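Weekly puzzle thread! Below is a chain. First person to post its structure in token form gets bragging rights.
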Amino acid sequence: MIRIPNSAVIFALLLLSYAVLVHTALSCTSAVDCTNEVISNQSKYVSCVDGSCVCDLCFTADVTGMCTIANCYSYNYFTDECTNTAPRWLAALIMSILIGGTGAANFYISRYKIAISQLMLFCIILTLPCIICCVYCCTGCDCGDVCRVCGLVINLILAILLLVVNLCLASWWIADLVIFSLNDRKDGNGCSLVM
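Winning reply:
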């Protein structure tokens, strides 16, 4: 026969009683039970549904039952209007299609780390042909065979680098198109894009 220590039983009962306390803190019989303090007519943003506190669309309930404005919404207290502040999906998709290589769609949805990385790749693509052209022009003069061979090797390396960067940016652009068309990327605040 296995004997369970009394301390383990007491600990388990304490955990269960805490779980019950947390559950009953959000239970209610009317909307007034859902708020500890009725601040600026807070009770009009919450209702009691099936014994649980439920907040209106713009609000979310915290552990005390108070309704606070949800992350992706703004609320006008004077007109009682709720507005989703997340960026528009269609605008992000169009930006991704037309100027996706510049990171504009990711700047629009406040995903700055991704956007800056895309913009840096785009700038490399713009500057590498200029560098290749300058190296070619500088080595095109009559400075000897060694200078000319060295310039051709540098041009070859830069051309390969340009090809690799172009392939990276093109694959990134295609991946962004798929992600934005499926509306599978959240904005910088963690909100889903508005369809």
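Puzzle host: Confirmed. Bonus trivia for everyone else. The helical segments are 6-25, 89-99, 104-108, 112-139, 145-181.
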